[in-house]
């Protein structure tokens, strides 16, 4: 009996790995006990279930995405600090190779798929319906399904840390390294299933917001009157719909290789690992534009608002968005120029990759000239936007340099590449999402985040960023490869690595300041009583903060781009206030616990497949089918909110 | 100081530091020791100059705009909240990047095709067959009949055709001072031309992650005169041990090791490795020989597409 127990503890709980795992177990256990204790003590279980776990309200789903994204930013950030600590000095013994490999794998996977993706989805959800004058997304129930699939996919991925072992084949997970022969542990299965489950949710989100933007805009809001953030979401959604299925196929086939003995990606028996590489990057390259386009959208909103000026070259901004999303499908081979595609293929993809820089450069100049002859206020969202411009200019420039195929033979897999993509993904996506978070935070929660703490966070993070990543360009040109857990001491890499690590710590301190800022502001943050704390330009700022759950008591009629700004300048704000005679009964979607339960079932099924416990996998899948069935027999998924109730709410908000 | 100003200073400082230290011999990529690396460095320099033509105006504009249009009382600068179109300006910043990409694209295409040829056509090239193992590099000299682990010797001024494969997860073969890298993949034979112009010991390393021992997959490429190279070969033949089939199976086992020199190796070992790892399923590898993989030789000459992967 004790033998069986010890076996279980060592195989699955990895207790033989020592204090690191024990400590994590204890921390996780304490956290769970803490959460359960607090919920029970304050009798909040009912509230949690009714208001959050079963909600189909896009604003709440957005907030849940945001919380998840920040948690994952923390986890991915801790991974990064561990990696940089190991690399601070050559031949360090802080981590061993196996742990280092696991940590860089989870760092990359989490940051892209479980941090950047939910962060953009948070803003999709919070902003898009309010910005286009809609009451919710096109498919609110599906929206909840998307969130819970993301949530349980991320949970499944993260649980690998304490149950069975983390994946260790890199976030790109190329076969044959990721095949059973070289990687027998369950970690790789966790990777495949965690991403797969949340990926289904991502595709659904893409469809949902495409339909929302195309079909649910307020009357009068033609495509060319749409705010640029909504345009960027439209672009991102089209890319999601085309790109994610490639990932789904790649992951599914690799999973079959691992659990069913197929040979899609082994040369042996006629498969081909290069096919995985192609499929992965057919998704992977559009993916980086999927996460950066919404950031571009945020910058466009923020620049116009905080320069108090119309966005410069709107038509150019829209066409560059569209061009980026189209060209991004013709650049994927630049991730493996050195894999032998031939000079003709390499030339095509090299020039296409450079070409994607053209519309991006145009956007930068349009942002700059939006500020020209404007009045620039340096609030937090604007500071992150201003910091983005030089960062992304360098990241974009090194991107064009990497696109030069023969030169890429020298950059590929070196720290030059690492510096480049961190500069674009942090400088673009993270700065953009933080700008968006600061900008729309009052709309979500009804109070502003503290400026003073936010400035500390800004400077620590920004200065840390340059100290961390500029040396890595140099290291790349010195010949340092990525993914080495130790490096030789005689290569001249030591100082720059130490500097880079210090930069990473400074960024970590910056993140802690953001945490402090949020905690402090919950109590002391400036309350937003007007609903329009930044003197905004678009429809969401005409609503109270936070917006009532039906958003608009009366759907507005849109007559202009920057509608709210123009009404304010002309003193016609009243036009967007509801009049009692116009308020009608509102049909709202009912809450449902099924999406949450479906997520649980996916989790259980995925867990079963990870360990090849087929009875559990079948049970989970049966649960998924049941939840799908139950939805088919649900005939009353809407309810009617009576006009009197709406009027009552509007009066209490001071709008009537 | 504004956000723009401070990060501008940082960036310029970092760029200057990078530029000044670029002369240091530690910057392997910027200190090429052969024609391939040199050509790649020329493109790196060209592309850097071209992108700076966009980056510098962005920095200057950003600093100027943020300084001039700050929202502070009594700012005399113009405020035109509705000014949002300018055909001429937009033509400028659509046009200039298009020209830059045109120029850079032209040179990229030219060099991409040029690097598929041997760096020098007057000298008879040397062929070295490279196998990435877990976690060491095996070098075989089909013309000389010797083999080494984790280092190789090459004659100065002779183009070397590296044929790359893996009997392990895919790796990438990189000797920064001689030129760019190429993947080593199981079941395939990829080609890479490199050449050293001056004698020296050049750092090389696997560049694509292959698992736990990956960090220890460094190797040296030792470039010596033709005379010294010939001497090294005969010394290896007379003093080294033979690499046997069993010895290779031992090498294949996951593990890290130092260098080794072998006086001979099983004939057709490289082809066998490609063949048994799946090359036999690949029509492009059909030219490699008979069913046992030992009968034929790799196609030479026109079929060789160094740096571009499988033979046609």
TrEMBL record, chain A:
GO terms for biological process: aerobic respiration; electron transport coupled proton transport; respiratory electron transport chain. Keywords: Cell membrane, Copper, Electron transport, Heme, Iron, Membrane, Metal-binding, Respiratory chain, Translocase, Transmembrane, Transmembrane helix, Transport. Residues 43-559 form the Cytochrome oxidase subunit I profile domain. GO terms for molecular function: cytochrome-c oxidase activity; heme binding; metal ion binding. SUPFAM superfamilies: Cytochrome c oxidase subunit I-like. Pathway: Energy metabolism; oxidative phosphorylation. It is a multi-pass membrane protein. Pfam families: COX1. It catalyses: 4 Fe(II)-[cytochrome c] + O2 + 8 H(+)(in) = 4 Fe(III)-[cytochrome c] + 2 H2O + 4 H(+)(out). It is found in: Cell membrane. GO terms for cellular component: plasma membrane. Gene3D superfamilies: 1.10.287.70, Cytochrome c oxidase-like, subunit I domain. Its EC number is 7.1.1.9. The chain crosses the membrane at residues 20-42, 63-83, 103-128, 140-163, 190-216, 228-256, 276-299, 311-332, 347-369, 381-405, 417-441, 453-475, 495-520, 594-616. Belongs to the heme-copper respiratory oxidase family. This is Cytochrome c oxidase subunit 1.
